[in-house]
Specification:
The protein has one domain: 3-Layer(aba) Sandwich (Rossmann fold), CATH 3.40.50. It has nine helices and six strands, in the order H-E-E-H-E-H-E-H-H-H-H-E-E-H-H. A six-stranded parallel sheet has the order 2-1-3-4-5-6, sandwiched between helices. Helix 2 packs across helix 3 and helix 4 packs across helix 7. The protein is globular, with a radius of gyration of 17 Å. This is Pimeloyl-ACP methyl ester carboxylesterase.
């Protein structure tokens, strides 16, 4: 088969895209995104971490759903972007795309770096992440988008240990940038400020919730990528 035919067969055949959403978020935040017709979207649900589970072990469990017998791509949003990059190390993908996420620990915001240096996330009481605690609302708003009044509709995974563990892992994360990772950022993202990164694509007016609020612009980019 010629290279031309191989390339076109690959392009028009069904490509599975495994997707991991943001920290504490289900897939509602991504539900309006439109992918090319040849893409089959497979969502990977968040798992509850085991007690003191290392990120590497957690990533292996998250990756169990991925079928490596056929080509696949990975897409992650926010903390999910970190997870899919870790998955890519053990199960290499054809393409890795991250939305509202970072490609290395060098791109962390000052706020997250402070947590890394001070180890504050480790000593935060579990009760701070309790679903009934008043503090949860302010934590979630700062984590996603303080200007979006519908923010809690995306925040579905509320297990306190999962939330505390995840915040710790984001603060502690160390990673060397993979130049092949495709990064899409909003220019008004407060969680992962664009000034710390050199994204492949920029969503104008996009806050951290840009996959939901700027879904048409993001869908256009995804159709270019895939």
């Amino acid at each position: 088969m010629s290279d031309f035919l191989i390339t076109h067969f690959f392009y028009f055949s069904i490509m599975k895209v495994y997707v991991v959403s943001g920290l504490g978020a289900d897939f509602k935040v991504l539900e309006r995104l439109q992918f090319p017709e040849h893409c089959e979207i497979v969502f990977i649900d968040w798992l509850i971490p085991e007690k003191n589970e290392p990120l590497s072990a957690y990533v292996e469990r998250m990756a169990e759903k991925i079928d490596t017998s056929e080509p696949f791509c990975l897409l992650g949003y926010s903390f999910g972007g970190i997870i899919v990059q870790e998955i890519n190390k053990i199960k290499p993908a054809e393409k890795v795309v991250i939305l509202g996420s970072i490609k290395s620990d060098k791109e962390k915001s000052k706020f997250i770096k402070t947590g890394e240096v001070t180890k504050i996330p480790r000593v935060l009481p579990l009760g701070l992440f309790n679903n009934r605690a008043a503090n949860v609302y302010s934590v979630v708003r700062k984590l996603f988008d303080p200007k979006n009044p519908k923010i809690l509709q995306y925040f579905k995974v509320r297990d306190p240990y999962y939330l505390k563990w995840s915040v710790e892992k984001v603060a502690e994360w160390k990673f060397e940038e993979n130049p092949n990772v495709i990064q899409i950022l909003g220019d008004r993202d407060l969680v992962f400020p664009i000034k710390n990164s050199k994204p492949n694509y920029i969503i104008k007016g996009g806050t951290h919730l840009f996959p939901a609020t700027k879904y048409k612009e993001v869908s256009k980019v995804l159709n270019e990528i895939f």
